[in-house]
């Protein structure tokens, strides 16, 4: 099959931006609008005021639902938060950044085992799969549906940013959204027309993330050191983005791995398991 090359010079540039360093791709490299858009993807947290029209939103939601789904079970739900007050309540919760309130649209992607429970029950059968495995399936479904919507939205010139902070006060958010048992909010998504271009956040090199045949992290620390230096050279972490300064202080030249370690050293979302139990998602 002959593949049409839509762009001439952007792939080298876009992959270099993605990794902060040139990537030898070799020939032939086929570029499409989709590959270029994916390489150029970035989260947007600053939006114009104008809203997306209803038909565009419906179209984007159809794109979200076009994502693959484990066993075709379609175990997710998307809450489009339309009521201004409800959106304000959620976006003004402690821990939410200001941009969430300003984003014209807020969607909440939920893992949803409930629908399957109801289907099974309606057929007079007993659901034997209220399991952790099924929750992982449902969470995966919700995540890839969200990503499909992100890709579709970006292709229309829109911008998005996921919001896991909805899980910080998961009980409160779920009560406001009236999420029944069997459902939990995986992530919110702020959506709108971006106010600026945003910027690429560089990724770990493929030598760290991609393993050929067998997992091998024997050179991890040296590789991370190089990544830290590359990333710091391009986009140093601003002082206000240093995590947990109350515990660790402000450190000159704080690197990505320092912030990762800082984040992982402080327990987040302690109530999550209890919440899942409350939602009847206490899974074997
Ligand atoms: C599941 C998920 C949850 C996220 N939650 C938040 C969030 O609560 N707040 C936020 O500002 N960004 C959030 N993000 C965005 C990440 O911070 C962002 O993807 C990461 O910093 C890389 O930047 P990029 O998306 O521009 O490449 C989330 C991303 C994912 C995939």
TrEMBL record:
Family from the record: Belongs to the flavin oxidoreductase frp family.
Keyword entries, A-Z: Flavoprotein, FMN, NADP, Oxidoreductase
GO molecular function: oxidoreductase activity
The species this protein was found in: Symplocastrum torsivum CPER-KK1
Protein name per the record: Nitroreductase family protein
Segments forming domain Nitroreductase: 39-193
Domain of life: Bacteria
InterPro entries: Flavin_OxRdtase_Frp (IPR016446), Nitroreductase (IPR029479), Nitroreductase-like (IPR000415)
